[in-house]
Amino acid sequence: MLEILYQDEYIIAINKPSGLLVHKSFYARDAKVYAIQELRNQIGGQHVYPIHRLDRKTSGVLLFALDKEVLKIMNDRFATREVEKKYLAILRGWSPEELTIDYDLTNDDGIIQNAVTYFHRLQTTEIELAFNNKPTSRYCLVEAIPETGRMHQLRKHFKHIFHPILGSRPHGCNKQNKLWLEHFELIGMMLHAHQLIFNHPITNKPLILNAKINEEFSRVGTILNLDLNTYE
């Protein structure tokens, strides 16, 4: 059963599990289960329309419209940046305390698109895990707020500043991912859409939707001695 965070006659939001596709994708033709069909079945067969997307490996708040008119309203609000998305990510190394990454990205059609991400560092940690001839490894927890919505934007932006998201493939650190696979059996990606802030499409009432982190994110936080109580 999908965890429903909010539901009324116009919209519905879930806490999407990591590994679940939003809908059928050319890039993941092996998948048999999709968020759209699972949610539709769960609420009695009513059609649902995804308003935005999350990567397959990204967990967290995912918002759907229950009719096409509401879908158009919310698509327009996303396009005009009236919706704020907040993500939690565990990065390799100690990032700057805060930074706005303004770095253009190229999509699959070869088109260059402006992409902007603001983030601030929440916690730093260092554990006894030998890497690159050093006896310890450093990591940090950040909150990221993308101002644009490009494919794999956060993964690519954090790799660009040399602080890749732990577990990200292909836009990560292959050596770190291998290290964590061997030592901690980590196969997931430490990226979670923990909050969505917007005005309701019909009532215009302010809404703040929060999604708890999953067990894998929590487990990695424990290994790293991060305080994740606020997000569990």
From TrEMBL:
Residues 11-160 form the Pseudouridine synthase RsuA/RluA-like domain. Its EC number is 5.4.99.26. It is an enzyme of class 5 (isomerase). GO terms for molecular function: RNA binding; tRNA pseudouridine(65) synthase activity. GO terms for biological process: enzyme-directed rRNA pseudouridine synthesis; tRNA processing. SUPFAM superfamilies: Pseudouridine synthase (SSF55120). It holds the Pfam family PseudoU_synth_2. Responsible for synthesis of pseudouridine from uracil-65 in transfer RNAs. This is tRNA pseudouridine synthase C. It comes from Flavobacterium petrolei. The lineage of its organism: Bacteria, Pseudomonadati, Bacteroidota, Flavobacteriia, Flavobacteriales.
